[in-house]
Design a protein that fits this description.
CATH superfamily of the largest domain: Glycogen Phosphorylase B
CATH class of the largest domain: Alpha Beta
Distance between the termini: 30 Å
CATH architecture of the largest domain: 3-Layer(aba) Sandwich
Number of domains: 2
Mean pLDDT: 91
Strand order of the largest sheet: 3-2-1-4-5-6-7
Number of helices: 18
Low-confidence stretches: none
Number of strands: 14
Shape: elongated
CATH topology of the largest domain: Rossmann fold
Strand content: 15-25%
Helix content: 40-55%
């Protein structure tokens, strides 16, 4: 019945569906791929593993897993699908040359799904986080294709909606061969919606399966350091104003500003110059804060390492509508993070960090200054926050190996 209704709606509203996708920036080629018209060169009849991440956040989450799968399963074909244009862009940027095919996930109708499955013949499909598509589940079960959710999560809002429709979601969830969740809370949500207890497990969060970069340079801090990482236009002013307030109280406090895009360097320099503080560019060979107050980080590839020398980290893209950047680059060094309210790109990570008291989400400059002041003035509070970050990593790691073992068993 689900297949019949979805196919009927697809055919009835096909012109509107195509118009909508074109207005959203999808090309004719992209729409063709979404209809399942795709090919995979598999003359060797290798087994095929397919990963699906709807957009940027999901692809970032499974990037390392995909690369590890390539290392472990050298003879397998690997497909990556996304649902959005931005997902395609990041997938090509990070995975071209690693996987055999990057394409779009098909429209969830019997005709499109069957065409897609006929063309690529996956043995295993791993769907990142939470995408419950009825027809793909039904057809995979018919064909004995292993369909799994990995890094699974359900937000409270989504869960409350799904719970009212448990009669609908329970049979859909039972089409999955495995559901592997980020947390115990997510595990309980899936189980309460009708997922099979035998095949639903906690795996932890793939995004935490990272290692700190090797720090291959020395930096004389000459005090404590606040780093403003990956700042966007409008955020440097907020940080500089907060820094002035904090600097008046903590004379040893230094600042690193690392703009997200280096084409903003002249803009950042103008703002820093107007602040009246002594500053310099990292590219000029700065190795000490002894003679400067502010360093403008204008080199490539050093930001992740610079967190090792910070005491407090502000993660940019969060005081505008960008959606924030990855706070784990700081947390992995057990350094407390502060972010603005716009964190939708990493909301699952921030939820874990906030619940563990390893980081803070603030609404404005005043709240930022208040939290930073507390961290600088209260050694016990700072130590507890840093320790919480260390414990978060210990509790969350292991997800990558979990999935690799599941693939070996399959």
């Amino acid at each position: 019945m689900i297949g019949f209704i979805s196919e009927l709606l697809y055919r009835l509203f096909y012109p509107l569906l195509i118009l909508f996708h074109k207005q959203c920036g999808y090309s004719s080629d992209a729409i063709k791929l979404k209809k399942g018209i795709v090919s995979l060169n598999n003359k060797s009849s290798s087994k095929v593993v397919m990963f699906h991440g709807v957009s940027v956040g999901e692809i970032n989450a499974i990037e390392k897993l995909i690369k590890k799968t390539r290392e472990v399963f050298t003879d397998y074909k690997i497909i990556v699908t996304t649902g959005t244009n931005t997902g395609q862009e990041i997938a090509h940027k990070k995975l071209d040359g690693v996987v055999d095919l990057i394409t779009y996930f098909p429209f969830d109708t019997p005709s499109c799904v069957n065409r897609f499955l006929d063309n690529v013949k996956p043995d295993v499909i791993l769907v990142a986080e939470t995408e419950i598509w009825p027809n793909i589940g039904i057809e995979c079960k018919k064909r004995n294709i292993k369909l799994c959710i990995i890094n699974g999560r359900i937000s409270d809002r989504t869960y409350n909606s799904y719970r009212k429709l448990k009669f609908f979601f329970k049979p859909l969830l039972n089409n999955y061969s495995g559901i592997y969740t980020q947390s115990s809370e997510d595990l309980e949500k899936f189980l309460s919606l009708g997922a099979d207890k035998k095949t639903t497990e906690r795996m932890n969060n793939l995004k935490f399966d990272i290692t700190p970069p090797t720090v291959d340079f020395q930096l004389d801090k000459s005090g404590r350091v606040l780093i403003a990482a990956s700042t966007h236009s409008g955020e440097d002013e907020i940080i500089l104003s907060a820094y002035k307030t904090l600097k008046d109280k903590y004379f040893d406090l230094k600042l690193i500003i690392a703009p997200r895009h280096l084409n903003r360097l002249s803009e950042v320099e103008t703002l820093v110059g107007a602040s009246g503080y002594v500053y310099g560019f990292r590219s000029a060979g700065i190795q000490s804060f002894a003679d400067i107050d502010i360093m403008i980080l204008d080199t490539m590839g050093e930001l992740g390492k610079m967190f090792a020398y910070s005491d407090i980290s502000f993660i940019g893209g969060s005081f505008n509508k960008t959606g924030g950047h990855n706070p784990l680059e700081s947390i992995i060094f057990s350094k407390p993070v502060i972010s603005g309210p716009s964190i939708f790109n990493f909301k699952d990570i921030y939820a874990i960090i906030k619940n563990a008291h390893a980081g803070f989400i603030v609404k404005n400059k005043d709240e930022f200054t208040k939290v930073a002041d507390k961290l600088l003035s209260d050694k016990t509070f700072y130590s507890q926050t840093a320790k919480a970050g260390e414990e978060v990593f210990k509790s969350q790691q292991g997800a990558l190996d979990f999935v690799i073992e599941k693939l070996k068993n399959i």
